[in-house]
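User: Could you check the structure of this?
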Amino acid sequence: MKTIQYPQIVESVSDMCVAAACDLPEDIWESIKKARVNEPFPRAQEILDQILENAFIAQKERIPICQDTGYAVYFVKIGDDVKIEDGTLSDAINEGTAKGYTKGNLRGSIVNDPLFDRKNTGNNTPAMIHVDIVDGGALQIDLLPKGGGCENMSRLAMLKPSDGLPGVKKFVKESVVSAGGNPCPPVIVGVGVGGTADGACVLAKKALLRPAGVYHNDQRYAALEHELFEEINASGVGPQGLGGMHTALGVFIEYLPCHIASLPVAVSLNCHAARRMSVIL
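Assistant: Sure, the predicted C-alpha cells are below.
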C-alpha cells in the first residue's frame, strides 16, 4: 500500500493551476507555429503571430495566457493500492485549486448557484473532478482549465444507430463550423462517441488531454480523426473565426460501448490556449 499525504496533493494541485494558466503546452506551441508557416491568408497569419506572442509573454512574465483562467476540470487515475493520508482526495484537489488560483492571482470564475444566487465563490472552487480507479500504486492528476467561451460551444446529439458514421461526421463538422469564432479558434476538437449521454460528454472533454499530433491507436478512429481534421480546416472559419485555413489544431476521438438503441455523440472544444497540466504522485 502506497500512502500519499494530503498536503502533497494540495501543493501539487496548487502548482499545476498556476503553471497551466501561464504555460502553453509544447505540442500546442509547435502546432500553432506549424499552422503559421502553412497559413496563406495574411489576416490569419497576423492572428497566429499574435497568439504566439501572447503565449511567449505569458510564459516569460508568469501571467495568464487568457484572462479567463477556466473551470478547473480534473481527470484523476488513482491506483487501488493508494491511500490518502489525513484527508480525502476531493478535498485536497479543491483546497489545492483554491490555493493555486489565489496565490497566482488567477480569476475566480465559479458561481455557487447557477440560477438563484450567482455569487462568485472567489477562489474558483468547487472544481469538477472525474475519478477512475486503476491498478497499481500511483496517483495521476490531469488538469484541464476550461474557458467559458469554448465550453459554451459544447454539443451533444443522441443520434439514431442508423445515422452511422455519416451522421457522426456531419454532427462534428457542423458543431465546429457553427461555433465560428466563439471558442477562439484554432481549436482542439474533442469527440466522445458511445456510452450514455453523460458518458459521451465526459469522454469528449477527456479527449482534449491527448497531445497534438497523436492519433488514436485504433487505425479506424485515427483515419476518422485525420479526415475530420482536414474537412474542418477546409471550412474556412480560420483563426478567431475571421477566415483562413486553420480552424483546428487537432481532432481527437474517444469511444465507449453503447446501448443497441443509441448512438450518443458529444463535441467539446478547447481554444487555441489549450491549457493542461499533469502530475503523477
